[in-house]
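Diguanylate cyclase (GGDEF)-like protein, Catellatospora coxensis. Tokens?
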Amino acid sequence: MTADVPADSETEQLRRQLAEAVDAARDAYRDTTRLIQLLDLLGRPAGSAELIGDMLNVLSDAFFADVVCMARVCGDRLIVSGSCGLPEDDPAYTEGWPVGEAVRRTLATAEPTALHRDVPAEDVPGSVAGLGIRSAAWIPLSAEPYADTLLILFRSLDQPFAVPDLRMLTSVAARLHMALEERERHAIIEQLAHYGHLLARHLEVEPLLDEAAGLLLRLTRADRAWVVTVEGGQGRLRAHRGLTPGIIADWPVPAKSLDDLPACEAGLPEVLKVAVSRENGATALLCAGREQARPFAQGTLEIMTIFANYLGVALTNADLYHALAERATRDPLTGLANRSALVSHLDTLLSAGDPTRVGVLFCDLDGFKAVNDLFGHEAGDELLLQVADRLRGSVRPDDLLARFGGDEFVIVLDRVKQLSEVAEIGARVCADLDDRLVVCGEQVQVSASIGGVLGVRGQATPSAMLRDADAAMYVAKARGAGQVEVFDEDASHRSRDRLDLRAELLLARSRGQLHLAYQPIFALDSRAIVAFEALLRWTHPHHGIVPPDVFIPLAEETGAIVEIGQWVLAQACRQLALWHRLPEGRGLGMSVNLSPVQLHQPQAAERTLDVIRAAGLHPADIWLEITEHSYLRHEVTEYAGALGAAGVHLVLDDFGTAYSNLSYLKRLPIEILKIDKSFVSGVTGPGGGQIDLSIVRAILAIADSLGLVAIAEGIETEDQRTALRSLGCRLGQGYLLSRPLPAAQAGLLLRPRPQLPARAHRVG
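Tokens:
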């Protein structure tokens, strides 16, 4: 202590220093306590809204503030998003406050602003103005120049916000900003999983993309969001949120300009774009933009990428749904409506309140099966495609063209007034199809049998109309190829009978309705029997005797002919074995007809030989008849070769009635030709006798030159037998000797007979 400084002055100075130190320690303790409280809040696992509410409450207590709020600048208004001290219904949450000078300065400098006592009225807005505010502080939530959110404290206590206070508030605001961004990121990631389900619920592309635009806006906190698809070298705006009409009018744009998108990015300093990746490449683009120079939160691009993956999966699902829907309603070969779509469309038309009527044309191609068998299924498909194209050009714009199945097509005619219109349209379709088409390099004649009906709305049903049109079509087909017939009751009854027979044929054998009749094949000179032909017969309990030309096609359509054919062969072989035990039956042959369906079955030769041998017969005892109209394919040639090598005699039936017979003689080991009865019946008839004689003479010459045996079918008169003998034909069958008979009666016809000519040398 110096003499110049009085003792009491030095003591006073020490007291002041001690008081200042105590105050500083108290302030430091208070600041530390406040900071610990605030940091503790930031570390709690609370949501954003809860965190903001708790933080504002603690700040109000810690800094003796009457009002503490968070607010964001939107245009020229300051919108409050959370507060402590303002009523819940305060207009500051909805209408906001005017932006005062303190707010503008804080945003411009990104530094805190504090005012004491002389706080301008514009900086104490709304309901805060009545609280007698003496001190206020504005703290930017982020130090970045794009900051638009502030932490604001108002207090009536006549004590300024000191520099340490502002420093602490700045630190708290920054930490709060980071905590909110982290929570927002977690919330968005949680939302992503939910949004994936929201997208997956859409199976139509337009609502899917519209939902995606809305979700994208929420995920990115953007001001505008839009979705672009790339189609045909152009970018199309498919959905958006926030784009102005002027911007929308600039679309579409060239795909190569999508990286720039100047029209959409006008006024949007911050734009993010993410491609939607799919298996076939990126076909869509997600875009999000912000109007102010405020970058997106960290990780937004990653979030958009995840969302784009969700959208890609949803788009793939939508495409799959459409593909399945298309498959469910479209014929996969022709692209026409299928049976399901046809029935649905017809049902809709018949339910409509309209004074006009609805017509249906049922079209069945003539000879399609022959083309399919001759050239193969690929040729058949090609023919169907060409027919579908022809029919597209024949129907009216409002008509529906559908493929009903196989070679059947149906045309639904809307707004028809009378049945004659149905007949006229059917005739036009028939004429358009009556032409030659090139299939697999070969010209094919195409025609169609068409049946038509007219239905009254509110009375007719799709099933009844299709049934009746089908019935009319069969009437047309019975009249010949390329005919048109409109509905009548008789045709409907015949159609129903046919459907009944088709269903009952599957059970006919197990019910004992099928049996065999045997017609002898005899020597024309001695009338001695050399073989029998086994003929299948069906006696129905209600319909009586069903002709073979009716039920055999039905058996082939259903596939039942395979099982029935095996049964016929087994029955015939067993009967022949019984006759072989008789002295007069030794050396007798048995002829059995084969369907083309049987010929095309796998391992047909092995199964056939197994049946023959199981009956105790030699393969040479059996004659298998192959009709000329079978249009045999390559695998049948192998089948026939295997049978011929085993000793089975192959017979070509109905020789001379189709154009392909000579090629069969070259390809197959044929030994016997059957001359069709249409030629035999004319050899002695008036007018055309000379022509038929010439045809029979030519057939016999072919057989003789190739070392084949000829059998004349349908011999009914003695004159026909004499004429055929004079031409050199040695064998025949027909009503002259016997009609087809049951086995017991046929056996009575047996008597001594000459041997069958020696097995002919097979032509290669």
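The longest strand covers residues 529-540.
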